[in-house]
Design goal:
- The complex is a heterodimer of chains A (78) and B (379).
- Chain A is α+β, with helices and mostly antiparallel strands.
- Chain A contains two helices and four strands; from the N terminus they run E-H-E-E-H-E.
- The two termini of chain B are 24 Å apart.
- The chains are: A alpha+beta (78), B alpha/beta (379).
- The interface between A and B is medium-sized, with 20 and 25 residues.
Chain lengths: 78, 379
């Protein structure tokens, strides 16, 4: 397994919410990618946006500006 | 074959639709089930199609575009998920069974339903909307265009009527989405039900409903969603709320390509071409002896449909002769619109329906008119 590092994780209630996030981040040049939701957040299923910790501010700004439907934002060592 | 049965399903589909379906079948994983590239490719495509449809239909939120296999299922979800015992619903005689049967089923369960009547020309009695209004009226459910005559319903007026009286407006846009303008916001429409394979020019097995923000439709099916797995209930959020089970990402990829074509070509260009051909056909055959055409051709704006009968001939026999002898595809019989057939007086005879798409030509249209002329001469 690769080395673990802290990541900014954004979760969603629907896959569509995750898709909107990915689209907005790509358009705005905010780094990150979609990954399966880690079990430290929820033992459910689904996908979340994983961004470098340094991008948290940009992620939060984008969520506000684009009215993205998110469930939560977490700082997690992955 | 000269294909004039586009109100049943459009054929052919635009360039790029079949290719998109094939590419999807060769590469997509399951949308919303995992985050590997193949699954994400399916999810991205589906999300893109939601955005396209939201733009096309004036739905403020792409995540309120929910997919179903067809408009029948969408109408069932909207009607049975919003209305029930204690409610009164207004609908019309123009409706297809995809609206009528869900309403009749609700009526058996204690919901009151009234229908705005159509006359022998298929024209609605517009004053009946006001007359049928009751204190417990909750919704108007109606089509945008009759699948039998092609007559349009003035949805600006219906939307205003619903807005004024605080009613829900559920629209069946099966025959019009993609060709006639629909704007949920401007026209006060709460739910637009659509199918992908008719005027939207996409594959069969695609359809859905656009839902106004803030409207809570009870889910019809519950099941796997790829999210919130340990919840015992269906997620409350749209579109997942109404989408249990694997989505048809292959078909929706094709629908996305069809929507690209519609956007590039332009709704007005498509509408002008189709209505010109239908009008050309109508003008040629309407005066032929023994030909009865159904519907209101006094209006310029109508769906590209001409339904007719020749003398007392069985519409099935005429349609069969058109196919076998002239190579022209039409649809005979009752067209799943029993109330309108009763109004038109064609319950027994049915009607032969000709319906156009953007891919039909003047030559095909003239050949169809000539075939009718020949059949008339033989009566």
């Amino acid at each position: 397994m690769r080395e673990r590092e802290e990541r900014c994780i954004v979760t969603f209630r629907t896959t569509t919410g995750a898709m909107a996030m990915e689209r907005a981040c790509k358009a705005a040049g905010v780094p990150g990618r979609l990954i399966p939701v880690p079990r430290t957040i929820t033992a459910g299923c689904g996908m979340c946006w994983s961004a470098p910790t340094g991008a948290r501010e940009a992620v939060e700004k984008l969520v506000m500006e684009e009215h993205l439907m998110i469930d939560g934002i977490y700082a997690i060592i992955l | 074959m000269i294909y004039l049965d586009n109100a049943a399903t459009t054929r052919p589909k635009p360039p790029g639709v079949a290719e998109a379906v094939t590419a999807a079948m060769l590469s997509y994983g399951n949308s919303g089930r995992g985050t590997h590239e193949d699954a994400l490719a399916a999810s991205r495509t589906i999300f893109g199609v939601r955005r396209q449809l939201a733009d096309l239909l004036g739905c403020m939120r792409p995540d309120h575009v929910c997919f179903t296999p067809n408009s029948t299922q969408a109408l069932n979800i909207a009607i049975s998920g919003l209305l029930g015992p204690g409610d009164h619903i207004i609908s019309t005689d123009l409706e297809h069974n995809s609206v009528l049967r869900p309403l009749y089923r609700l009526r058996q369960q204690g919901t009151a339903v009234d229908f705005v009547p159509a006359d022998r020309n298929g024209r609605l009695d517009w004053g009946a909307f006001e007359r049928l209004l009751r204190p417990d009226t909750r919704a108007v459910v109606c089509t945008h265009a009759s699948n039998l005559t092609g007559d349009l319903v003035d949805i600006d007026w219906v939307g205003e009527f619903c807005h004024t009286h605080g009613l829900l407006f559920i629209l069946d846009a099966s025959q019009t989405a993609g060709v006639f303008p629909i704007d949920m916001e401007k026209q006060h429409i709460d739910v637009v039900c659509f199918t992908g394979h008719k005027s939207l020019l996409g594959p069969q097995g695609t359809g859905g409903l656009c839902v106004r923000e803030g409207l809570d439709i009870r889910p019809f099916a519950v099941g796997g969603t790829g999210v919130q797995s340990f919840s015992e209930t269906q997620p409350a959020e749209y579109p997942t709320r109404l989408e249990a089970g694997t989505l048809n990402s292959h078909g929706l990829a094709g629908l996305g390509a069809a929507l690209d074509f519609l956007e590039q070509t332009g709704l007005e260009t498509i509408r002008a071409h189709e209505t010109t051909l239908a009008r050309r056909f109508y003008e040629t055959i309407r005066t032929l002896p023994g030909v009865t055409v159904y519907g209101d051709f006094g209006k310029a704006e109508r769906a590209p449909i001409v339904a007719l009968n020749i003398a007392e001939l069985d519409s099935s026999a005429v349609s069969d002769e058109l196919a076998e002898r002239f190579g022209i595809a039409t649809r005979p019989g009752a067209h799943c619109a029993p109330r309108l057939h009763r109004a038109l007086g064609t319950e027994d005879q049915g009607a032969v329906r000709f319906s156009w798409s953007y891919f039909n030509t003047e030559a095909e249209t003239d050949a169809a008119a000539e075939a009718i002329r020949t059949l008339v001469s033989e009566v």
